[in-house]
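Good morning C.,

I know you're traveling, so I'll keep this short. The sequence:
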Amino acid sequence: MSTDDHRVRILLVCMGNICRSPTAHAVLRDQLSRQGLASQVAIESAGTHGFHVGKAPDRRAEEAARRRGYAMADLRARQVGPADLATFDYVIAMDEANYAAVEELTDGATRARLALLMDYVEDAPRRDVPDPYYGGPNGFEEVLDLVEAASDAVIAALRRDHGLA
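The tokens, ready to paste straight into the viewer:
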């Protein structure tokens, strides 16, 4: 995580941090860079479960992302912890189950704004980004479709709420 105190800090969370949250990490990082905002926002991702800590993203997620021009080979899974809620400005979960798991880590004095990723999208077709792990390649494409739409909305909210230019 960045130690630059002036940057807005976002943590993207799914269950194992090998499919959805690293995909969102790669997409949001790329879109922030393209819009000249990378120096103003620090992005990380994590999982609510620690069974993949230290591992690279799922090969299928990485391949789907690469086909759309996103790089995620540098990312490694880690587990979200209580300290993250004091460090990040936003903790954005991919689904309601992981939102609830993060919420259980709060001590009532959290700095982070907790949200679901799809709540940023007006008239979103669904609230959860579905877990593609046990499915076929179409699931990873659906994750990318949802994450791309949500990333635009997240960036618009950051511009509005933090005056990013």
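Safe travels,
E.
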